[in-house]
UniProtKB/TrEMBL annotation:
Origin superkingdom: Eukaryota
GO terms for MF: RNA endonuclease activity
Record membrane topology: Multi-pass membrane protein
Annotated protein name in UniProt: Uncharacterized protein
Record bears the keyword Transmembrane: yes
Xref: Pfam families: V-ATPase_su_f (PF23489)
One term under GO cellular component: membrane
Subcellular location: Membrane
Keywords noted in UniProt: Membrane, Transmembrane, Transmembrane helix
Record-annotated membrane-spanning stretches: 12-35, 55-75
Chief localisation class: membrane
Amino acid sequence: MPINIKPVVGPGLAGCCTVFSILGIVILLALGSFFGRHVEGLTGSTKDPKDPDHVAKMCYAAAIIYGAFIVFCGLQMAVHRRYPRGVQL
């Protein structure tokens, strides 16, 4: 019995979301790593966060959320590939 799955977002939006999510993960992992190592450029000023380890954990948590977006949008792109162009869903 085939499952009738309809896409939630368009193929362009799914592709754009995937690309931006990958970039977001890279940036957030880098920032989390820098805050976790207490890099002076990010933690040396009086206006910077008092607990850089907590900021690093939040960056990693946000990267996980972006990972969920990659999974969702990747599945949406797979659903779009299943149907030929112009088919009414």
